[in-house]
Amino acid sequence: MTFKWLLFAFIIKLTNGLVQVPKLKLNDGHEMPAIALGTWLGFSSNGPKSNEVEQAVRWALDAGYTHIDTAWIYKIEDQVGRGLKGVPRENVFVTSKLWNTFHAKEAVVPALRESLRSLQLDYVDLYLIHWPLGEFANSSYDSTDYLETWQGMIEAKKLGLTKSIGLSNFNQKMIERIIENGLEKPAALQVELNLNLQQPELVAFCKSQDIAVMAYTPFGSLFYSKAAPDAPPPRVDDPALVKISEKYNKTVPQIVLRYLVELGVVPLPKSLTKSRIEENINIFDFQLTEDEKKLLKTFDKGYRVIPQYKWQDHPYYPFEKKVNE
Ligand SMILES: NC(=O)c1ccc[n+]([C@@H]2O[C@H](COP(=O)([O-])OP(=O)(O)OC[C@H]3O[C@@H](n4cnc5c(N)ncnc54)[C@H](OP(=O)(O)O)[C@@H]3O)[C@@H](O)[C@H]2O)c1
User: Fold this and answer.
1) Beta 162-168 vs 124-129: how paired, if at all?
2) Which domains does the chain have, with CATH numbers?
3) What is the position in ligand 1's atom list of the atom closest to the CA of 253?
4) Which of 76, 219, 279, 305 is the best mutation target for the ligand 1 pocket, counting ligand atoms within 8 Å of the beta carbon and taking the most?
5) Residue 69, C-beta contacts closer than 8 angstroms, at least 6 positions apart
6) Which residues pair with 197 in a beta bridge?
7) Whose CA is nearest to atom 14 of ligand 1?
8) CB 285 within 8 Å of CB 12
């Protein structure tokens, strides 16, 4: 460990164990904390319990998180709002997302106002278009052009309802189309990014455009309980990962999150478990070597946990389609 990192670890100890999270400068001048608590309960959830996310948000704040990632569709923005009660507004960065059923330009501001009511906030720090594709309430496709939706996002920012605006699940061509049309450049892109899906070209493109990248589903298929039968390795007991984790006296999930931070992306680990919430943020006092990063790169297989093939016939489906054998 270099002197710089030892000093950093010492400073963290001095601040009562509260982890100090670095910040990334966004292209619009605002700053985003380098890790966030994810709040999606997953496809298998039977619906949120009354206060589980509220509690997780409180534990996260106590551990030093200053960034919470949420969305209208998660149906827990009210819990996030209650969890944030009492925290000075400027001390926390809140990201939320516009759902597919609000893609008409004039639907964006009312949708954000509804999220703000649930969150009990006057503004969010970052508002993202959740997916480039629109749907109607009956799940039929709404082919509203995302350029129109983006104009609604620009309007929401002008009204002060969000400090920054960005995209989620857009591909490079779609982002280029927004920029080529002379519209405001997105400040951030949130995409799936984990060991099995490292997206180096997309990350390099965003870097070249000064667009911050946020990594959702950061653990990918690391845990046996979540991995599909066809998911490539590694799992959490992979010997190469365990060896690295032992070297730094960290856990394998911490090594994965640290790797993402070193790729320059903002991981959004979700947990409802106090000890894991604390574990996941405790990654800013060590640094991986070039050889370790090279090894971690070899797990990149372009494998998606969330391809959402159900939308693949939509004109704005962003990913490679599944080919029927
Ligand atoms: N923009 C989008 O379209 C999109 C899509 C997906 C996700 N997201 C965002 O990204 C966040 C994270 O993604 P995700 O929820 O799909 O998956 P994830 O964060 O990769 O994994 C969450 C799972 O890992 C477990 N876990 C967390 N930390 C752990 C640790 N240290 N050790 C062992 N298990 C651990 C959690 O269990 P417990 O909760 O039981 O502790 C939970 O089952 C979401 O919550 C959401 O905010 C965005």
Assistant:
1) parallel
2) 3-311 (3.20.20.100)
3) 31
4) 219
5) 36, 37, 38, 39, 95, 190, 214, 216, 268
6) 194
7) 217
8) yes
Q: Is 40 near ligand 1, meaning CB less than 6 Å away?
A: yes
Amino acid making up residue 144: T
| Low pLDDT (below 50) residues in the chain | 1, 6, 13-14
Token pair recorded at residue 87: 């925290």
Q: Report pLDDT for 324.
A: 72
| pLDDT at residue 8, as a whole number | 53
Give the side-chain half-sphere CA count within 13 A for 137. 0
Residue 194's beta-bridge partner residues?
197
State the pTM of this model: 0.95
pLDDT, position 106: 98
Report which protein residue has its CA nearest ligand 1's atom 10: 216
